[in-house]
Amino acid sequence: MSPTVSILVIICTVLSIAGCVWLLVLTARKSPEDLTKDPTTGHIWDGDLTEYNNPLPRWWLNMFYLTIIFGAGYLIFYPGLGNLTGRLGWTSQKQHDSDAQKTRARFASAYTPYRMMQFEQLVHEPGAMALGQSVFVNTCAGCHGSDARGAKGFPNLTDGDWLYGSEPEVILATIGMGRQGVMPGWKDAVGVEGVAELVAYVQKLSGNLVDDTLASSGKQRYDMFCIACHGPEGKGNYAMGSPNLTDQIWLYGGDSDVLTESIANGRNGAMPAHSAILSEEQIRLVSAWVYAQANAGARSTDEPTPESKGTAP
Q1: Up-side HSE of residue 89: CA atoms within 13 Å toward CB?
Q2: What is the pTM of this model?
Q3: Which three-class secondary structure state does DSSP give residue 309?
Q4: What is the 3 state secondary structure string of 290-302?
């Protein structure tokens, strides 16, 4: 706060304390005339219920004096008088940093056994997976869900489908440094009709039945505007985080209305960096846990169905 406001706060605080002391002294003092007066206020209810005007009990006054002394002492040692920091130099930021350091030191011992393990070893270590899941639930579940299955606009981390690749170093970079995914809007460039054509072609890429005429025109526009990011076959690009358009996995949805919104107005998704929030060991453990969930999901998806095994009735 500014020096003027600080001085005003100090003056108001000191005057308030002095006012409390003055009020207590005034309340406790009795003049000789008061001793000869009727001790009641003259108010009587129900015939025998009389209101007296007695002085405050001594113990109550002493307690009040003690609270004033405590308050004055607090303001001497701790901040509270404007910009004065207090004799102890305490601040909430210092307290937070101290508590955070103690907490990190306490948890560091839990991560020590896994510090030197390779990424591939961590995914097979139950203790490491339990810690990784704990970090995920406390840090990542708000966006991706406690089961890591995501939501609209937030990727499902269990299906084995990756925007930037599944290599351990890529996952570590994603969680540590974050990602910024930008899909530009094309409505101004291609018009409403062009958006409809692109929607038809994108749906055809993913195996849906569409108007072939629209899809054919959409392919021409795709080759002009979209091929640089999504590739000639629509299979995406790990280097840019461009999604594969040929599967049935959609971040925002694959119906016509959602695709129209995506192509016309674009999308802007952000994965925040966690290097300032999590320690290096925590990032490695949660990365290993995510990697394990995604690969487990991919394996379960690749398993033959009963029909393909010939066991269907």
Answers
A1: 1
A2: 0.66
A3: helix
A4: HHHHHHHHHHHHH
What's the mean per-residue pLDDT of the chain? Answer: 87
Position of tokens 């002394």?
Answer: 69
Q: What is the pLDDT of residues 104-118, one digit of tens each?
A: 788 778 888 888 888
SS3 label, residue 289 = helix
Distance CA 156, CA 142 (A): 13
- Sort 199 into a burial class: Cβ within 10 Å, 0-12 / 13-18 / 19+: buried
Q: What is the rounded distance in angstroms from the CA atom of residue 148 to the CA atom of residue 154?
A: 10
Mean pLDDT along residues 119-135: 92
Long-range Cβ contact pairs of 236-244 (< 8 A, separation 24 or more)? 236/163, 238/162, 238/163, 238/164, 238/165, 238/170, 239/164, 241/163, 241/164, 241/179, 241/181, 242/163, 243/163, 244/161
Per the CB < 8 A criterion, the answer to whether 248 and 202 are in contact is no
pLDDT tens digits along 261-306: 999 999 999 999 999 989 889 999 999 999 999 877 555 444 433 3
- The 8-class DSSP code of residue 243 comes to P
What domains, with CATH codes, occur in the chain? 3-77 (no CATH), 105-178+272-301 (1.10.760.10), 181-271 (1.10.760.10)
Count CA atoms closer than 13 A to 21's CA, side-chain side: 12
Quick one: pLDDT at residue 310? 30
Helices (H), 140-255: 141-144, 168-177, 187-205, 212-225, 227-230
Better pLDDT: 187 or 28: 187
Residue type, 295: N
Q: How far is CA 15 from the centre of its chain?
A: 43
Tokens 């379960």 found at: 300
As a whole number of angstroms, the distance between CA 148 and CA 156 comes to: 6
